[in-house]
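Lab notes, practical 5.
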Amino acid sequence: MDSTFNPLRLLVEFYRTNISPIDGKNCPMHPSCSEYSIQCFKKHGFFFGWMMTCDRLFRCGRDEVRLSPQILVNGESKCYDPPENNDFWWSHGQ
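Output from the prediction step:
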């Protein structure tokens, strides 16, 4: 599904390379929201990748941090929330 042009993925890449380094904020989740978004676009394409990205942004830093398992990443406790934990609805045959 990665072969089609995706302007939202380009926007996320722009954020990751140009804004995030100077933003100073650190995502409490692992993978970070931008990395999660890129993975979703690669795996599920434009529409479902966008839907999963929006869902993640709504959950980031809220109850998810309290409810999901924690892992250590570079000495920091992060909420472990990969795309695989949230695409159970997707048919495994695709």
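Observations recorded by the TA: The beta strands are 29-30, 70-73, 76-80. DSSP finds three helices and three strands in the chain.
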